[in-house]
Amino acid sequence: MTPLATEKGPACRSGWQGRLWRRTWTANLTLTWMADFSVRAMNVTVKDAPPSGKAAVAGLVTLFAAAFLTITTETLPMGLLPQMSDGIGASQPMIGQLVSLYALVTLLVTLPLTAWTSHWPRRRLFVVIMVVFAVSNLLLAVSPNYATAAFARLIAAAVHGVLWSMMASYATRLVPPDKAGRAVAAVFAGNSAALTLGVPLGTTVGTTFGWRVSFLGMGVIAVLVVVAAATLLPRVEGVRAGRTGVGTAFRTPGVRGIVLTTTLIMLAHFAFYTYIAPYLANRGIPEEGVSAVLFAFGGAGAVGVWAAGALVDTRPRGALLWAVGLVTAAMAGLAVIRDLPVATVVLAVVLGLAYAALPTLLQSAALKAAPAAQTAASSLFVLAFNLGIFAGAGLGGLFLEHIGVSALPVVAAVLAAAATVVVIAGRRHSFPAASRNRDAGGDGTGERERELAAH
Question: What is d(CA 5, CA 274) in angstroms, rounded to the nearest whole number?
Fold first, then answer.
């Protein structure tokens, strides 16, 4: 899975976003055996040079659309609980389980399926996954009962993680090496767009015209992405030989620091953000104003994603230090202020801006830290991200219940400060000052280019 943040539902663990946070409870199980599980490294080769100009933009737009589609597909049922419940004769909690089951299957099958498909040409794999999403959404749109709906969801869940394990590195193949970080940012922008636009829009359509229309529309989008991918994406081959395990990637210098930073910052953010609504109420924000604050949070996040894309290739360390530093400062400020609603809103906007930049910066760092094992490194990043989300929500819930809402930003500030310390200490391997492997187009391509030049 990918990073999640949305305007809706962080108020309590019973909301639809609260259910979504529970999606990652299997991360601990996965982490216990991942060190022995072997994932083939995507030591890809490209038939032609990276596309340029309009061709590169078209390819990135295709990947953006895929990111938008998959995240919207995953989370949309939570915006349509009553309608889907009435439509297929299942209780709302059972409809909510369609998201939980989706997450469970994604976490359990991503690593083995990624290994099994690692030798597939990237474009072929991408097209197959998009076909599965088209079938899933169209089948869900006509599902007569809960069993059919569950099956439709699970076939998409089975390929969801495979897509996200390969999509960031695929994006880097569309651009010159010095713009690889911006390409990753473009993919994550699709994630953000899904949660700030796709789910609310899909919910509105489903409420107005019926929930089946929403999923029919998602199926049509998937078909269009299939067509676009088959014609716009370059041919990139999968691994030909060799195996690089997740455990091996974890032992790569720099990867452990990235995993630790990711876990800490996710713990910090979601220990607070999951319960931001009761916090805002405690700080004098009226109930009707919470949505406006969350909208501003999301809008600032869009700016943060743009800023990360602009800086990740030229000033990756500086951008990351600023981002984690601002998250720490915003959390500390939210812990201190009292009875200052305007200051609360300003700090919440700063938090949204800084936090949204982090997924791009951390994912890019993971790709650079293990250029010969990008899929394995990405898998570790995703696991750390989701583990932090799940544990953060649980930790925040404990503090909320036993100490009170005022403790949440304090805990978050301490965790964010710890993440900042790890970033500062990781100057050599995890978060170097300059973009390491500038001549590497990902997955060891730079080494092959040097070999050819030597001859």
Answer: 9
